[in-house]
Write a structure and sequence with these properties.
By secondary structure, this protein is an alpha+beta fold. It has 21 helices and 20 strands. Strands 3, 4, 5, 6, 11, 12, 13, 14, 15 and 16 form a ten-stranded mixed sheet that branches. Strands 1, 2, 7, 8, 9, 10, 17 and 18 form an eight-stranded mixed sheet that branches. The chain has a two-stranded antiparallel ribbon with strand order 19-20. Helix 12 packs across helix 13, helix 15 runs parallel beside helix 18 and helix 19 runs antiparallel to helix 20. The relative contact order is 0.15. Bound molecules: flavin-adenine dinucleotide (FAD).
Length: about 600
């Protein structure tokens, strides 16, 4: 393990407690077996990681267990917007929009300014004068309300106000808009985040406050004493070992797997009504190179069912999304050729140079956890989140969205605290900057000198600061200790080799897929989808995780099979055939010790 002693800068010792290293995983596994926790949280998506941070920051003893990788479910597959949701305004969900915009402001200014960035969007208006005027009034009123909800002045807003644009101004900002399709636009602001990075940062911030965080730890059953849940049975998916974890309260934050919790409880005997049901709706996104579209803002376009976004993403554009029911494999939702055709068809209505399948660099599909009431009393819950306590000691939280994770987390931990009768503090996460936020602005301001000191270009340093905030100092320390880590990763010039090492040494990445798909976004940002980086990344991860040659080959083979299965699914005409093609590559975690895939297993 050549990197353990590499961090010499005393200013970064405060990051040590946040390090999800292999040694930390072993120690946390031991604690899982031995300790009795105030709260055990099942599910390491944004909801579970947010709840772990909320609980740990109130002084509770907390364990977070995730079946696969942090953010491996829906939370790495969103549109990556921190937004109020303009379309919810149309549905008069005013409270929801207001709450989300308040959260957007908090995240962009105080909690995670290093991760959450303002992003301008255009609402293109139609060419016909009367129609355009009508819509300008309609959308103009909507975005004015949107701005008002975010707070018209003050530091908390974090975003500029909206503006009305003429046709000429709209085309100057977005030259690729088709001349005959656009008669002016309205520009408003929302914010963007790397969703998987947000979740990893939440989990690491929780770990820095003492939370146990273990990935590849699947809950396979619930411990019960009479009618009370007293813990969970966990399988360490890496070793195949099973053991019990004792908890005063269990919080299930399992997204589209929420119904499985009910099944596991029912399997323990006796009737059980979970109080909420979650159904999955699939959303697909495409990634195309930045050069395929000329524009300096995002677009929001209306579709028959919902809206379509065209969003700048570094050197790329994201186009999405679809919205269709999904009842197949939840661990690997597959995009079909029909989904891709739908997205291209809609975006091409406004672009002067149509996109085709040959422009596509990457594709991902995610599943929205939509609440559907189990009975009359819960059927109105669809868009909001819900917290229910169907059994003593067990609290379920589901629904909501990435933007409002903090509100969901505070809500579910409030329930836990009330149940435990603890004198815990109220939630204080609105005052708690995430790891990397403290010192971020200072580091950005002093970047020229810092870059010089570490022998990297200012551009490289900016890239690191925008991904890690002040934690970039830790990545720089790796480069100092081994200058070869300051070189770009093979096949992915946007990333440094040091980032792969850091993912395995400090961010809990255990498999190649964790690093290529979530700690970095190489799997959808390159047209080879990470294949050309797999060998180099496996070598770097192997140095930290002690992989021998056979282990590296297994990891690479698995990753290549995953990419091939995804490509194949995207050629299939519909969901059924796409799902069958995607299942051609089993999940690396189940594969490592069981040798066969388990469909739908988290
Ligand atoms: C296409 C799409 C676009 C979206 N865009 C946006 C957006 O732009 N902005 C926004 O705010 N929101 C957006 N959302 C919504 C947002 O992404 C989700 O609401 C959020 O990510 C859900 O997080 P979660 O933690 O509840 O679920 P998940 O992220 O799915 O986490 C659940 C976790 O539980 C784990 N798990 C399941 N069973 C077990 C078990 N037995 N043991 C241990 N772990 C288990 C899973 O592995 C998984 O990691 C979008 C959603 C989709 C699908």
């Amino acid at each position: 393990m050549p990197y353990r002693g590499a961090v010499r800068d005393p200013s970064i010792s405060r990051f040590a407690a946040a390090r999800l290293s292999p040694e930390r995983r072993a120690a946390d596994l031991l604690r899982l077996r031995q300790d009795r926790f105030d709260v055990v949280i099942v599910g390491g998506g944004v909801t579970g990681a947010g709840a772990a941070l909320d609980a740990a920051s109130r002084g509770l003893s907390v364990a977070l267990v995730e079946a696969r990788d942090l953010a491996s479910g829906t939370s790495s597959r969103s549109s990556k917007l921190v937004h109020g949701g303009l379309r919810y305004l149309e549905q008069f969900d005013l409270g929801l929009v207001h709450e989300a915009l308040q959260e957007r402001g908090l995240l962009a200014t105080r909690l995670a300014p290093h991760l959450v960035r303002p992003m301008p969007f255009l609402i293109p208006l139609p060419r016909q004068r009367w129609h355009s005027g009508l819509l300008r009034g309609y959308y103009g009123a909507g975005v004015a309300l949107y701005d008002a909800f975010a707070g018209l002045t003050g530091d908390g807003r974090g975003m500029p106000l909206h503006r009305h644009l003429t046709t000429g101004a709209a085309r100057r900002i977005f030259p690729s808009l088709r001349n005959d399709a656009v008669g002016g636009a309205i520009r408003y602001f929302d914010a963007q985040v790397d969703d998987a990075r947000l979740v990893t940062t939440l989990a690491r911030t929780a770990a820095s406050l003492g939370a146990v965080v273990v990935t590849s730890a699947r809950v396979v059953g619930f411990r019960r004493a009479a009618r009370e849940v007293t813990g969970v049975e966990v399988e360490d998916v890496e070793s195949g070992e099973r053991f019990d974890v004792t908890a005063r309260t269990v919080i299930a934050a399992t997204g589209v797997w929420s119904d499985d919790v009910a099944q596991m409880i029912s399997a323990g005997g006796g009737p059980f009504r979970p109080g909420l049901r979650v159904r999955a709706s699939k959303g697909v996104h495409l990634v195309v190179p930045r050069s395929a579209i000329s524009g300096e803002a995002g677009l929001i376009l209306r579709t028959e069912k919902s809206v379509l976004f065209v969003i700048p993403w570094g050197g790329h554009w994201i186009v999405g999304t679809t919205d269709t029911d999904w009842r197949l494999d939840r661990a690997h939702p597959a995009a079909s050729a029909k989904d891709i055709e739908y997205l291209l068809g809609h975006v091409n209505k406004v672009l002067d140079r149509p996109l085709s399948t040959s422009d596509i660099e990457g594709v991902w599909a995610g599943l929205r956890p939509l609440l559907s009431g189990e009975d009359e009393s819960t059927s109105a819950l669809s868009r909001e989140h819900a917290v229910v306590e169907p059994m003593l000691g067990l609290i379920l939280v589901a629904g909501g969205k990435l933007t409002t994770y903090r509100v969901m987390a505070a809500d579910v931990v409030d329930h836990a605290v009330r149940r435990l009768g603890l004198a815990a503090r109220p939630s204080r996460t609105d005052q708690l900057p995430l790891l990397g936020a403290d010192g971020y602005h200072q580091l950005m301001r002093g970047r020229d000198a810092v870059a010089l000191r570490h022998g990297v270009s200012v551009g490289v340093l900016e890239h690191l600061i925008e991904r890690y905030g002040s934690v970039a100092r830790e990545v720089l320390a790796l480069v100092d200790s081994s200058p070869r880590l300051g070189r770009p990763l093979a096949g992915a010039p946007d990333y440094l080799a040091a980032e792969i090492v850091f993912a395995a040494a400090a961010e809990g990445a255990l498999h190649l897929e964790d690093t290529l798909a979530r700690r970095t976004r190489i799997s959808f940002e390159t047209s080879h989808r990470g294949v050309d980086s797999a060998r180099a990344a496996a070598d770097l991860m192997g140095e930290v995780l002690g992989w021998d040659a056979a282990h590296k080959v297994r990891e690479i083979d698995h990753y290549l099979a995953r990419v091939e299965a995804e490509r194949e699914s995207q050629r299939m005409p519909d969901d059924l055939t796409a799902d069958a093609a995607r299942l051609g590559a089993p999940d690396v975690r189940v594969f490592t010790h069981l040798g066969s895939p388990r469909s739908g297993a988290a």
